[in-house]
Write the structure tokens for this entry.
Amino acid sequence: MRDIKKLLDENTAVRLWPEAATALNLKRNAAYAAAGRGEIRTLRFGRLLKVPTSWLKQKLGLEEPAAS
């Protein structure tokens, strides 16, 4: 978990596979299926899907949600 937290602290977005999927304890196909359904927030750069680290930290309980 320490490596994941360090990765999330150093980047604004990480690749869906393998970083985000591993952090969410998902296999590759499950991660892409969840992203396709909109369950994982992603940013598309050509064919590359990235997950914002702020969203991922919130899902993992590492950061409180921003007040709106």
The chain has one domain: 2-60. The longest helix spans residues 2-10. Residues 2-60 form a domain with the Arc Repressor Mutant, subunit A fold (CATH 1.10.10). The first strand starts at residue 13 and ends at 15.
